[in-house]
């Protein structure tokens, strides 16, 4: 499945009742991620925080933290994403959009992965 500039990705997930965190990853492979989108209910030092980052050649860049946290354990949520020349724009379940820079600088990504304590309900690219 590829995701390229100008396309919209919609993911419907349902975090488990005891979910500590889950992640949505878009990139080229597990060592090169344009976007690591990681809602954290209670993970490490983060509580009700969305952490975003990129991974290049297996090395993480600086984390970006988002305080708006419209996720609830046990409830389905829709996360959208758009790509553009300036960056990636994750859309949260409450409609807010976050600007995350396209640190890898590419216009097409072929790797997509969801990890953690959330069930995938659906995925759509248009």
Automatic annotation (TrEMBL):
<dbReference type="GO" id="GO:0043236">
    <property type="term" value="F:laminin binding"/>
</dbReference>
<dbReference type="Pfam" id="PF00337">
    <property type="entry name" value="Gal-bind_lectin"/>
</dbReference>
<dbReference type="InterPro" id="IPR044156">
    <property type="entry name" value="Galectin-like"/>
</dbReference>
<dbReference type="GO" id="GO:0016936">
    <property type="term" value="F:galactoside binding"/>
</dbReference>
<dbReference type="GO" id="GO:0005615">
    <property type="term" value="C:extracellular space"/>
</dbReference>
<keyword id="KW-0430">Lectin</keyword>
<dbReference type="InterPro" id="IPR013320">
    <property type="entry name" value="ConA-like_dom_sf"/>
</dbReference>
<protein>
    <recommendedName>
        <fullName>Galectin</fullName>
    </recommendedName>
</protein>
<dbReference type="GO" id="GO:0030246">
    <property type="term" value="F:carbohydrate binding"/>
</dbReference>
<feature type="domain" description="Galectin">
    <location>
        <begin position="1"/>
        <end position="126"/>
    </location>
</feature>
<dbReference type="InterPro" id="IPR001079">
    <property type="entry name" value="Galectin_CRD"/>
</dbReference>
